[in-house]
Input
Amino acid sequence: MTVSERFWNASVEELKRGYVHGGDHYLCLLCGKTYEQGIIYPEDGVLYEAERYIRRHIEQAHHSVFDYLIQMDKKFTGLTEHQSSLLHLFYQGKSDTEVQKELGIGSASTIRNHRFVLKEKERQAKVFLTLMELLKERDKHAPAFLPLHQTARMVDDRYNVTEEESRRILQKYFPQGTDGPLKTFSLKEKQRVVVLREIAKRFDSERLYTEKEVNEILKAVYDDHVTVRRYLIEYGFLDRKADGSQYWLKK
Output
């Protein structure tokens, strides 16, 4: 199961923690970093057992689960930019008056109205989640959709792909198997998402790559590796420094 699949299948409590425990390790749901249970991790003269260390990792790498989630695309959060700003300030412990002054809008009573709207959104979300959980128990015909990667940009219908559709696309365009070359990159949008998602698996999330290293990996996939590289960045699978000196798999 990929990190994205684990993220979207996690319970609310697991998402709040930012990690899950499975088998003999702890997995960060935000980036996929794992820590083995039973291993002691030393840092700055302090010894940490695995669960304490993954909590430290989340603080250092992501600041907090809240900070990570609030920065996700609005198609994932369902929040407007204004609502995200409000929640971020509330999370910092600011009063309504302080929030009003910082945002320069209305009055303290205006902020209270925004709080009411957000609370209403929370109530609606609870009802909707409950409905969907009940539906899962009865709906035997719902297809399994391909999970979205958390760093996706411009989330729209191109991501409306079932696991069965994904399997057929990969078989068609990777006739020698997904470790082999790509048949063509002349693809429709949905096909491109599936293909790019598969190509991204060739990169290690814990590594930084030079442009030359990225090119070498992609040349084994398709002759026009520059175009593939550009789309991996455009679709939010890879990122790079402005000068192109370093590339990495987005988490």
